[in-house]
Amino acid sequence: MLDLESLEIFRAVVTEGGVLRAATRLNRVPSNVTTRIRQLEERLGVALFRRQGRGLKLSAEGEKLLSYAERLISLSDEASLAVGGGGPLGRLRLGSLESAAGVRLPPILAEYHARHPGVSIELSTAPTAALIQKVLKFEVDAAFVSEPFLSAGLESLACFDEELILIAPPGLSDAEAQSVARRTVVGFAQGCSYRRRLEEWLAGSGTTPERMLEVGSYHAIAACVAAGIGAAILPVSVLDSLPARDQVSRSALPPQIAANRTHLVWKAPSTPAIDALVRLFDA
Questions:
Q1: Is domain 162-260 annotated with CATH 3.50.50.60?
Q2: Which of 272, 261, 14 is nearest to 142 (CA)?
Q3: Tell me: the pLDDT tens digits for 192-215?
């Protein structure tokens, strides 16, 4: 039979990326952590990790156990909360688009922390497609993603309305900006829903970008556009927060492209920590 303590040690080794950091987090000696992992592997009859260089990588069996461990630990926390009658406790792992993390989430997370100080929030950013996979694999508890996305097997809640806009080098008319977009698009890697919107818009007129420059931040996107490299699509709320906001031209997009929403998604059953987050948007 699996015990929660062993599962929590196993999860710590995964999330911390190794035995030494897991031992520090759990306030245990490394040899104890190693022994508990070995005992867990012997009990299950499988190897949960395999060596990769100096680090550890989950085996296929370890990947399967991690999803169950996350659910069992969450259910244990939920049971303690239901019996004890207190507020949500523990850890809430959130994924988010960079746009939401930088502009929309700070006041929401500040309010959440004020109401539920017993919850420790961990926030990471990624494009929508990657965030959906992280939720499905229980690598994060919930994530803020953008339309369009496939949500089979996930619960979702619309949280923020966004207006998307086309930006191009300074001084261009709308027609000139569209011409630039057909030549070079600046944006995130594949999996970004805003990039997908731009590609769908161009495809609607029978064209595709000749070149794609992939960068890793909105600051870099706006700076590249301002320098004349190409065009990009991004939320107005994000553009207004960037230093290069007055160094690019802005062009309106068709309503069906410009109107966009950010959703919170999670895998049922939810946890008390997720329910508390949902209530902030329902209020």
A1: no
A2: 272
A3: 888 888 888 888 888 888 888 888
